[in-house]
Structure formats: C-alpha cells, structure tokens
Amino acid sequence: MNWNRLSQFLSRNWREKCLALLIAFLCWVMIKGQSGRSPWQQSPRGALREAFSLPSSSAK
Asked: Does pTM surpass 0.90?
C-alpha cells in the first residue's frame, strides 16, 4: 500500500472513524468496570436487601 492511498484512507470519513473509536473505548470502559464486581453486587435483590437491613448492634 502506498502512502497516498493510506493518506486517503485515513482522511476519508474521519469523523465517523473518530466516533467509532470513541464508542468502542466507552464500551471497553463499561465492560472493564463490570468485570471487577462480584455477582451479588449486580443483582437488584442484593442491593435492596443491603439497603433495608438493620445493623446487628441495634437489634438489642
């Protein structure tokens, strides 16, 4: 591939290419953020149970 064709390839539709890279990066960040969580943190039941549970010291 010569430099002229490479230059044309990169300059053609550059806005769409930048937007596609941005979307891919954001998806990667979201997937990476979800992979660090344990399964019980992702379920809504676990979050509700934790939000409405009483502390053990106040159950006297």
From this structure: no
